[in-house]
Design goal:
It is a single chain. With 441 residues, the protein is α+β, with helices and mostly antiparallel strands. The chain has nine helices and 14 strands. Helix 1 packs across helix 6, helix 2 packs across helix 5 and helix 2 packs antiparallel against helix 8. It starts with a helix and ends in a 7-residue tail after the last helix.
């Protein structure tokens, strides 16, 4: 029970930061292009609670129709909850064509579902009347919500699929829509860089020493390159090697690539070429050698911010390479990548928190943020990358859009497959936990 609470205590805040930053990317770019933002939600419905803010000015005129939910309501008053169907006039002002008025607050039941299907191209919004200025209502219709499933978030925009809706996303050109859709992944990448910069700046103790080869496997890349027991590895593909982690990372970054290794043999420098394998035999590593550390010391290190920032860019780029290589290993006959769903990520978060190292927790959050950026930008239906594909197709077709019904069908099928994959991965996560296995080893 304690382990579960620790996992939740680590997972929810980390995921919350990543999700909020992601959605802020969509939120701010949408507002910058004049797209009406209707809701900023953390988690997925059903809603736990929400706060309405904003001061949207809505004009009324002789053509405005008002439907009253309660018999004793004769006109709109401050504090009323209203549902609005809006158009834009020639002055770009929002004008109400239909108002449904609820005097006693936010409605429940079938009355809340009252719609006007003849006005599909209207901007549909709802909120609380904060003021009345002549024939103009001032409505707090921007909703910030917290929802019951804390596994993501969303920004709900006006007219996401209907370009005829005033101030809609779909009514924007190809460029603005691409920016809005890609902004979430971009913000996650920026957050990962910021977090890695903090990791490099914070002081840390690093175990260093000579990385000496103790054995090479017969027929392995190390043996074929002529590496012998007793050789000390000092550099791989330009990466300085001071410990086991340095060597493991350098090898993982260069799977399938011919790399130059710098060694010390009997006090003399030596260079060899070696190509780490994607799919080594069981029990062997990509290079096919065993090592041990000698002359071990512990260094206390910190990196000044002006050096930490460029290093974080390098580390971010290396994350992309490591992810790519994991899938390349799979396609080349190696083990499938270790995938984790929400349960697995929560377990890993708890394991990191239990180690009591704030740098490790920040680095883990940076890794998750970059992975969130990568997954969201991939052409997967229902995710940002899948929507970007449809906008790109529109651009290639010189403005001719794929029908909303067809695009919705693709996203629906993709969403079903995605949920199925998450369920399969979650089953694996639960099986691992039931067997007492750790996520991070």
């Amino acid at each position: 029970m304690t382990t579960v609470l620790i996992a939740i205590a680590a997972f929810i805040p980390v995921l919350g930061v990543l999700v909020v930053v992601h959605e802020l990317g969509h939120y701010f770019t949408a507002k910058a292009f004049g797209v009406k933002v209707l809701e900023f939600g953390f988690g997925y419905p059903p809603r736990i609670f929400g706060i309405r803010t904003g001061r949207t000015r809505v004009r009324t005129d002789a053509d405005t129709r008002i439907y009253r939910y309660e018999e004793n309501t004769d006109r709109v008053q401050v504090g009323d909850f209203v549902k609005l169907w809006l158009v834009e006039n020639e002055n770009k002002e929002l004008v109400a064509r239909t108002i449904i008025l609820y005097r006693s607050g936010i409605p429940k039941g079938k009355a809340a579902d009252l719609t006007d299907p003849s006005r599909d191209d209207d901007l549909k919004t709802e909120g609380i009347v904060k003021g009345i200025d002549g024939d103009t209502l001032i409505v707090a219709d921007m909703l910030y919500s917290v929802n019951i499933l804390p596994l993501g978030g969303f920004v709900r925009l006006a007219g996401e699929n209907n370009p005829n809706v005033p101030r809609s996303l779909a009514g924007q050109g190809v460029g603005p829509r691409l920016v809005v859709l890609a902004a979430g992944a971009f913000m996650n990448a920026v957050l990962a860089i910021a977090m890695l910069t903090a990791v490099f700046v914070l002081p840390r103790d690093v175990t260093v020493g000579d990385v000496m080869v103790t054995r090479t496997e017969e027929g392995s890349p190390a043996a074929q390159a002529g590496i012998l027991p007793g050789d000390v590895v000092t550099s791989v593909a330009g990466h300085e090697i001071n410990n086991r982690t340095d060597l493991a990372r350098a090898v993982a970054l260069n799977l399938g690539s011919n790399t130059q290794w710098e060694l010390i043999r009997d006090g003399q420098p030596l260079m060899v070429d070696l190509t780490p394998r994607f799919a080594p035999p069981e029990g062997q590593g990509a290079a096919g050698l065993a090592i041990e550390m000698t002359d071990v010391t512990v260094d206390s290190r910190t990196t000044p911010p002006w050096k930490a920032l460029p290093e974080s860019f390098v580390a971010t780029g290396e994350m992309f390479v490591l992810v790519k290589n994991e899938f390349s290993k799979w396609t080349n006959g190696g083990d499938a990548p270790d995938l984790a769903g929400p349960v697995g990520i929560a377990q890993a978060s708890g394991e990191v928190l239990q180690r009591g190292d704030i740098r490790l927790l920040i680095a883990f959050a940076a890794f998750l943020s970059m992975n969130l950026a990568i997954v969201n930008i991939l052409p997967i239906p229902m995710l940002d990358g899948g929507r970007i594909v449809f906008v790109a197709i529109e651009w290639l077709r010189r403005g001719k859009r794929i029908s909303h019904s067809r695009e919705a069908l693709v996203h629906m099928v993709g969403f079903a497959l995605l949920i199925g994959l998450i369920l399969v991965i979650t089953f694996g996560d639960l099986s691992r936990i039931a067997q007492g296995e750790k996520m991070l080893g």
